[in-house]
């Protein structure tokens, strides 16, 4: 009976549609409408997705203005029929913020219908605003751009992505990509509102998203000059017709509706991929995942056969300088520092080389960026002298040491870990098997290929443990852990810092309910050693532990020193020692650790570690050894 009424209502709907369509429009038959309503490109045009927890089809677009049918947010057939009717040039219905004809408000859907109904006699109506936008972009192809992470801004700590719309080249003129337009999607936040509040509200979709289309040189200035973030550009196999569809699909959501911005999934990476899927229906780039990061979106594209045609790199002024500095030998580095420190003019000497001048030039450009775009008078004069001398030397070879920073060659941002843990005692509760899942992103023992060295951004890690005689129980829930170790050098003196928030149960605790909240925040300094892959660091921080079962709060200042080094290319070793004297009548704790990792492939890594702690007044210290198997995806 239910099937009968569904079929009857569909036939009745189609009859009404065909009756209302005017003579200039050839009405589609029922079977054509039903088949086309399940077309992949049509479903993507309306942003229909099945939920993560269920299989109900519903559009992710917000705002009723995005749909022509009252049931359009969940009924593809109803929306298709209403759209077909509205596209007639004689239709009096008006849509969108500007109250314009459906052809102007929903140009991507109109393009789709014209493709599948080529014999229809619709006449194109005039759409001045849409035509002005299409003329501005003059789109021929698309490039997907990844900006590296910016740990100092929680909203960008996983990086950012946007699309560059490559304009058609004028005849006999070189294409100037700096004047192309970028298309970016971000959360619309109140002015001056940023930091962790952005992340927290973004977790619950409390901001609307919005699209912007600045000129590409403005994005380059923002990222590579002001924020010292590198750009990776992935040219896509998108032709002019597909580019036109991409622009029109973006127009539809920008002028008729919006997306609620979710930090985890419906973010800059996800929705740009969903628009690319509209332009290229044969690509499958999005999934119903709980977390989608900018790096995930790059991996989706590079794993799609033929999607990426070329990869290029646009380094920040900081990366250019550090790379040129790395290319100098110790004598040239000393000379560079002497030249910077000296009050004398920069003149040609027998020791002067094009590599040294190139290093000086990139140094002053970097300093200009750090000083807000303006050098002091002495620096300005020296930079001018360096540039004059450069013209008298042959140009040095271009530095090409960027390959290891490509985001698509790094490990996956999500991780599953299986561990064996032991405290060395000979009883049934001295060993456990751990299983953990980390949503994102990168820690200090991970391979640095594709990531920023000496940095850690861990976001939500669940760990479960199983003792010999028990079932699995929650071992820890780490909400966030960020560490940034900035090496102190002559050229840059920045503080290192870390922050961690975790809920955990100490290993092999005697009570079942010995859970505690732990927060650790610290500032410090890091120093390079005999090579660029080894770093010494020192921290002083505040550590707070709140015990659930007793309601007691332990707070103390914790100094720590440590060393971390990359060894044999694929391996890392990290060791440290700290002392935590709690305030009040509580015992202090001395702790140490040695951790190692060995990366087998992009997806697999092995780890081993030994940790110890010595509680003041205790007769014997506690030790904990573990072996980890990591799988990244």
Descriptive report:
Strand 15 and strand 16 form a beta hairpin. The chain is built from 16 helices and 21 strands. The strands form three sheets. Strands 10-11-12-13-14-15-16-17-18-19-20-21 form a twelve-stranded antiparallel barrel. Strands 8-6-5-4-3-7-9 form a seven-stranded antiparallel β-sheet. A two-stranded antiparallel sheet has the order 1-2. The N terminus is likely disordered. The chain has 633 residues and is α+β, with helices and mostly antiparallel strands.
Provide a short characterization of the protein structure.
The chain has 633 residues and is an alpha+beta fold.
Secondary structure layout plus pairing:
Blueprint: H1 2-20, H2 30-37, H3 40-45, E1 48-50, E2 57-59, H4 76-86, H5 102-105, H6 107-116, H7 128-137, E3 139-147, E4 160-167, E5 181-187, H8 196-203, E6 207-212, H9 216-226, E7 231-236, H10 240-256, E8 260-261, H11 268-279, H12 294-302, E9 308-314, H13 317-326, H14 330-341, H15 354-370, H16 377-390, E10 415-422, E11 431-442, E12 455-467, E13 473-484, E14 496-504, E15 516-528, E16 534-547, E17 553-567, E18 571-580, E19 589-599, E20 604-615, E21 622-632
Antiparallel strand pairs: 1-2, 3-4, 3-7, 4-5, 5-6, 6-8, 7-9, 10-11, 10-21, 11-12, 12-13, 13-14, 14-15, 15-16, 16-17, 17-18, 18-19, 19-20, 20-21
Helix pairs in contact: 1-4, 2-4, 6-10, 10-11, 11-12, 13-15, 15-16
């Amino acid at each position: 009976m239910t099937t009968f009424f569904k079929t009857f209502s569909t036939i009745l709907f189609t009859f009404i549609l065909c009756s209302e369509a005017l003579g200039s429009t050839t009405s589609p038959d029922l079977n054509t409408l039903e088949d086309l309503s399940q077309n992949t490109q049509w479903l993507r045009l309306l942003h229909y997705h099945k939920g993560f927890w269920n299989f109900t089809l519903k559009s992710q677009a917000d705002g009723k203005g995005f749909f022509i049918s009252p049931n359009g947010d969940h009924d593809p057939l109803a929306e298709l029929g209403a759209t077909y009717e509205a596209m007639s040039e004689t239709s009096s219905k008006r849509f969108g913020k500007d109250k314009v004809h459906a052809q102007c408000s929903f140009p991507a859907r109109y393009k789709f219908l014209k493709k599948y109904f080529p014999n229809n006699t619709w006449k194109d109506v005039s759409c001045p605003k849409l035509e002005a936008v299409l003329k501005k972009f003059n789109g021929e192809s698309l490039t997907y751009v990844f900006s590296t992470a910016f740990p100092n801004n929680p909203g960008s700590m996983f990086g950012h992505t946007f699309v560059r719309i490559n304009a058609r080249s004028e005849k006999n003129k070189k294409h100037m990509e700096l004047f192309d337009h970028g298309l970016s999607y971000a959360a619309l936040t109140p002015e001056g509102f940023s930091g962790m509040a952005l992340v927290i509200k973004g977790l619950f979709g409390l901001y609307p998203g919005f699209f912007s289309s600045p000129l590409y040189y403005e994005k380059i200035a923002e990222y590579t000059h002001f924020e010292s973030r590198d750009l990776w550009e992935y040219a896509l196999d998108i032709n002019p017709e597909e580019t036109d569809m991409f622009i029109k699909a973006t127009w539809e959501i920008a002028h008729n509706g919006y997306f609620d911005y979710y930090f985890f999934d419906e973010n800059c990476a996800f929705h740009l991929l969903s628009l690319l899927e509209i332009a290229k229906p044969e690509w499958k780039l999005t999934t119903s995942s709980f977390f989608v990061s900018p790096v995930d979106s790059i991996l989706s594209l590079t794993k799609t056969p033929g999607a990426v045609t070329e990869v290029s790199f646009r380094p920040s002024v900081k990366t250019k300088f550090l790379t040129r500095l790395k290319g100098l030998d110790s004598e040239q580095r000393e000379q560079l520092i002497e030249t910077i420190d000296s009050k004398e003019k920069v003149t040609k000497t027998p020791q002067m080389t094009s590599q040294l001048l190139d290093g000086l030039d990139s140094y002053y450009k970097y300093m200009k960026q750090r000083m807000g775009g303006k050098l002091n008078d002495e620096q300005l004069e020296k930079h001018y002298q360096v540039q004059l001398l450069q013209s008298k030397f042959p140009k040095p070879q271009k530095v090409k040491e960027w390959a290891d920073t490509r985001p698509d060659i790094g490990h996956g941002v999500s991780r599953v870990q299986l561990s064996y843990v032991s405290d060395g005692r000979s009883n049934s509760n001295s060993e456990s098997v751990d299983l953990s899942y980390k949503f994102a992103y990168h820690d200090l023992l991970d391979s640095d290929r594709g990531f920023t060295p000496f940095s850690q951004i861990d976001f939500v890690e669940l760990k479960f443990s199983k003792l010999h005689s028990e079932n699995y129980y929650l071992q820890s829930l780490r909400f966030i852990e960020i560490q940034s170790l900035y090496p102190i050098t002559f050229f840059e003196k920045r503080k290192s810092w870390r922050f961690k928030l975790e809920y955990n149960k100490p290993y092999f605790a005697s009570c079942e309910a010995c859970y505690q909240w732990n927060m650790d925040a610290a500032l410090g300094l890091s120093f390079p050693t005999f090579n660029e892959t080894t770093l010494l660091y020192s921290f002083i921080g505040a550590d707070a532990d709140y015990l659930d079962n007793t309601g007691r709060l332990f707070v103390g200042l914790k100094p720590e020193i440590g060393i971390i080094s990359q060894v044999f290319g694929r391996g890392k070793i990290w060791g440290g020692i700290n002392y935590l004297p709690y305030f009040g009548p509580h015992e202090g704790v001395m702790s140490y650790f040695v951790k190692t990792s060995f990366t087998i492939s992009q997806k697999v890594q092995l780890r081993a570690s030994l940790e110890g702690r010595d509680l003041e007044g205790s007769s014997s210290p506690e030790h904990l050894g573990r072996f980890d198997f990591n799988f990244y995806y």
